Amino acid sequence: MADIVLSARHLTKRFGGLIAVSDVSIDVHRDEIHAVIGPNGAGKSTLVNLLSGEITPGDGSVHLAGEDMTARSPDQRARAGLGRSYQKTTIFPDVSVFANARLAAQARSPKALRFFGDASRDPVINAHATAALSEAGIAAHADTPARHLSHGGQRQLEIAMVLATAPSILLLDEPLAGMGPAEAQDMIALVSRLRNGRGILLVEHDMDAVFALADRLTVMADGHVIATGTPAQVRADPAVRVAYLGEDCL
Predict the structure, then answer these.
(1) Domain 1-81+167-250 sits in which CATH superfamily?
(2) Engineering a disulfide at 38: which of 81, 121, 220, 240 sits with its beta carbon 3.0 to 4.6 angstroms away?
(3) Is residue 72 packed enough to be buried (19+ CB in 10 Å), middle (13-18) or exposed (0-12)?
């Protein structure tokens, strides 16, 4: 197995008397899609927020490529190579598709905090933006206002914005949400391609997509990990069948 790009150990998060995530450990390797699944309320979103730095764990640690990120902010984690997409599309709708990607690339650039100079003319930033749009499959729409893209196109743009930051690990939170069958198939193909040279942690409710994409799965229920393994191992796990109230859900 390739090297570990993201590692979490014994993550725990409490909200008052509720333990949303309890003693969760997970590894994501380069060139791997590692899916996290579980019923509603299992703790998946809280886990992603802990990994991305949106919330701070009560216990446990998060490492990126061996570097301790537990106390680092989301922007610091992004600069270290962690890219995240959200359940709801987060784009700038009133500017072009290319401008969205360029802004994301600029945020990752060592020159991001400069006060003088036209970032739109920076050849390095523009090259990163162009490459990201191409990899996400929407380079043909570079001059289109982002609001005019279809829902699936906007999700592709959001991923392109993440790619423009040159991540080594992608956290994809329900990338197929709200898509029809054709758009979902396009997204599945895109996510499959994105594993090359990166690690991907995927949270998704579409089980057909999960089992088509995932190299490994972690199953959560009530804040705990109840199973981790290959798709075949997870399908056969009795605890997983109980959590999903029957094998028909898998």
Answers:
(1) P-loop containing nucleotide triphosphate hydrolases (3.40.50.300)
(2) 220
(3) middle
